[in-house]
Amino acid sequence: MTADPLAVYPLGSALDERGRLHLGGVDALEIARRHGTPAYVVVEDDLRAQVRAYREAFHRHAPGSHVSFASKANPCTAVLRVVEQEGLGCDVASGGELALALHAGFAPERIHVHGNAKSEDELAQAVEAGVRHVVLDGLDEVDRLARVARERGRVQPVLVRVTPDVRGETHDGISTGQAESKFGFGLQDARTAIDRIRDHDALRLDGLHFHVGSQLLDLAVFRRAVAAVVPLMDGLDEINLGGGLGVAYTADQAAQLPSVDAYAREKVSAVRDLLGERVRIGDEPGRSLVGRAGVTLYTVQTVKRNVATWVGVDGGMADNLRPMLYDARYEAQIVDRFATDGAAGAVHCRVTGKHCESSDVLVRDAVLDAPASGDVLVTPVTGAYGYAMANTYNGVPRPPVVFVGGGRSWEVVRRERTDELWLRDVAQPAA
Asked: Are 226 and 239 contacting, i.e. CB atoms less than 8 angstroms apart?
């Protein structure tokens, strides 16, 4: 561990005189006792602070810019409502996410609709809602959206998503800017799309959109992406730069992490240097807005030694799929006994889930203080993509979402019940 054992924990996290972790002023053991485990815990003060950091950084460097939360990172209604209250827009990638954003209170004119394979029904929902932009992702979609808008007597503002043929340093599964990406138009095809959109009187082309990828720590990639799309910006006055800033999942990554201000400054300076002052700027942060605000609490069920030491918890790949999809690294600690590597009692172990897959390993290189059945364990930086990707593999109900702040905790999403696993079943006629 580093000198700061809470380097990647939410703002305001603390260890009390007994060595117990406190989140939002609440003892983590009490959170587990009151709400059960597994449980997603969101520190509201951290969430609001990060939203404000984005809003203020872009306003400082590019007054009039439009920052939207990439809601796929955490589409929990309570999270969306905090983001809306703090003045950001919302980026959605399906009809369901659009419905969630509207339900959470976002005005349609603050919503961007994404997706590489939007259905006609999803396009109709976007047009009828009156969203700020539909981000077009294919030639078929151009003609389909034009027809849908014309049939409803609307003129729909759009952006064209361009694949800039720029790759950032990240896992292949979350890299989206390379030429062979499934997202967007290549640089040649983008010109064809722009010309076709201008032929439709039911569409209004405002600008371009690109997204290089997620979990990026090297900011230089954004300038290369802007440079790649400059030839397509003739006559256009808006560019949406996607998101992409990474988070520190482990303490050793914390020193590599650029600040939100540095991220905004780099992106804005690239646009100003290459496209001038008149171009409006949009950005769509996701994981870096919500990741650090969340932790997940588990209860240890078993500890056994089969060559390695395996610490089995009551959750796993159903509540955090990222280690299995992307080889993502996390830290873990026992909430009332933080361990230091090399100290007495410190055990190198693998924190594993309860699901019927050998790949169900949450943390492959944890150092825990004498782990035992009944201990409450915490993994930090799970505010992004845990809740969003949660599933019911092995018939395990999904965890609750618990907000904490001001010394109290409250559920914003209750734990799923076992009987809800079959509520969508349709009664079959008698034989």
From this structure: yes
d(CA 211, CA 78): 26
Both structure tokens of 215: 């979990």
The structure's pTM equals 0.94
**Dihedral-angle region of residue 376 (phi above 0 means left; psi in -120 to 50 means alpha; beta otherwise):** beta
Tell me if residue 356 is catalytic. yes
Omega within 30 of 0 (cis) for the link into 38: yes
Question: Of the candidates 103, 30, 36, which has an alpha carbon nearest to the alpha carbon of residue 71?
Answer: 103
Phi, psi at 324, each rounded to 5°: -80, -35
Provide the pLDDT for residue 180.
59
Confidence band for 184, pLDDT divided at 50, 70 and 90: confident
**What is 14-44+292-422's CATH number, 3.40.50.300, 2.40.50.840, 2.40.37.10, 3.30.420.10?**
2.40.37.10
Burial of 244 (0-12, 13-18, 19+ CB in 10 A): buried
Pairwise CA distance, residues 301 & 392, whole Å = 19
> Are residues 21 and 12 in contact, defined by beta-carbon separation less than 8 angstroms?
no
In one-letter notation, the amino acid at residue 125 is Q
- Report residue 181's pLDDT band, with 50, 70 and 90 as the boundaries: low
The active-site residue out of 76, 90, 349, 356 is 356
289 vs 247: CA distance, rounded Å: 9
* CATH classification (class only), 45-289: alpha beta
Structure confidence by residue, pLDDT tens digits, 185-204 = 988 899 999 999 999 999 99
